[in-house]
Amino acid sequence: MLSDAFGREVSGVRVSLTDRCNFDCVYCHNEGLGDTRGPQEPQDDEMTADEVVRFLDVAAEYDVGKVKFTGGEPMLREDLEEIVRRTPDSMEISVTTNGTFLPGRAEALADAGVVRVNVSQDAVDPEAFAEITQSGAYDRVVEGVDAALDAGLAPVKLNMVVFEGTAGYVPEMVDRVAERDGLQLQLIEYMPEIAGNPEWAIDIERVHGWLAEQADRVEHREMHDRRRYFVDGGMVEIVDPVGNETFCANCHRVRVTHDGKLKGCLNRGDDHRSMGEMTRDEIRETFEETVANRVPYYGEYLVEDDDGEWVVNEKYLPAPTAGDD
Ligand SMILES: Nc1nc2c(ncn2[C@@H]2O[C@H](COP(=O)(O)OP(=O)(O)OP(=O)(O)O)[C@@H](O)[C@H]2O)c(=O)[nH]1
Ligand SMILES: C[S@@+](CC[C@H](N)C(=O)[O-])C[C@H]1O[C@@H](n2cnc3c(N)ncnc32)[C@H](O)[C@@H]1O
Ligand code: SF4
Ligand code: SF4
Prior knowledge:
Elements: E1 12-16, H1 49-61, E2 66-70, H2 80-86, E3 92-97, H3 106-112, E4 114-120, H4 126-133, H5 138-150, E5 156-162, H6 170-179, E6 183-189, H7 192-195, H8 204-214, E7 217-220, E8 227-231, E9 234-239, H9 245-249, E10 253-256, E11 261-263, E12 273-274, H10 280-292, E13 302-304, E14 310-312
Parallel strand pairs: 1-2, 1-10, 2-3, 3-4, 4-5, 5-6, 6-9
Antiparallel strand pairs: 7-8, 8-9, 10-11, 11-12, 13-14
Helix pairs in contact: 1-2, 1-10
Guanosine-5'-triphosphate is lined by residues 68, 70, 94, 96, 118, 157, 159, 186, 188, 191, 239, 241, 251, 253, 266-267.
Protein name: Probable GTP 3',8-cyclase
InterPro entries: Aldolase_TIM, Elp3/MiaA/NifB-like_rSAM, MoaA-like, MoaA_arc, MoaA_NifB_PqqE_Fe-S-bd_CS, MoaA_twitch, MoCo_biosynth_MoaA/MoaC, rSAM
GO molecular function, one term: GTP binding
């Protein structure tokens, strides 16, 4: 397994299959590309299934054991099932989706080899949902969650971005996952870096504090040192990257953009390496370079030396953790 200069092993990849989407969520960072709601028709620049699989084959050679397919909306790709089927057997496959295409396709995804899905659902109130996603698809998403559970794609994590527009719905969402076996809740701190509107952010520590009061127990997940609260039989995980040095110190994934560029960090736009028409050997080299150049985003990992060059801040070496859960 490859490690970066901070000792962070790369055990997973997140592959964006498209930047298209049928929603237009007001907060969307589009996996680092920044523009909400990409074009609706298939684009020439999307990786083909062959290109995705070629990259995954190379990643598997480096013992990358997990792949997350995301987007844009990855289920807009009609060849998603094919890509999943052709993903190396050694990889655990999950998908993050807005859920609208799960009815009618969840079973096929499970048959192809997806083990679990994360479904975005920011509110239990259809009107609020419509305002946030700019869509009228609330019922369809709820149906999609049911379809995923019926197909055995469990646990289904409900992804909820916590910001000014949703914070009031957190207690209802916590109740919802407690009521239903197979559901978990993932509260994602709003990230304004790429999406803009920093005034929408709320203090995620208040949510931690509230959950700590409700929880019977709290666990730490190895990836990102995320906290998991167990409330009335339900599990609530908080994804809180913003300004969080510990989160980045435990980041074990390399990303691929829909147009086939490798990148070491969600928030960086200056480290993209295009795989384009590369041979496998070239992809290997590019993957190694990408890992070697990964730098945690939050924290003073790079400092200026006496000659004005940016160098690794030695106080962070070796990195605190390795591995993934
Ligand atoms: N800054 C940052 N944000 C992340 C990272 N991982 C996840 N997030 C945020 O959390 C969102 C939801 O991630 P998901 O695609 O559901 O997957 P996940 O929670 O990371 O992975 P699993 O819990 O293993 O399913 C992402 O779109 C980001 O907004 C990360 O490494 N860095
Ligand atoms: C970019 S979407 C792609 C997958 C799919 N379309 C979906 O919505 O699940 C992946 C996740 O990123 C989250 N997300 C988008 N913009 C965000 C932001 N500015 N801050 C935090 N999370 C964000 C969404 O809620 C979603 O759960
Ligand atoms: S559904 Fe996902 S990709 Fe589409 S706009 Fe919403 S968060 Fe962004
Ligand atoms: S380094 Fe930090 S901000 Fe960048 S992808 Fe990893 S956890 Fe996210």
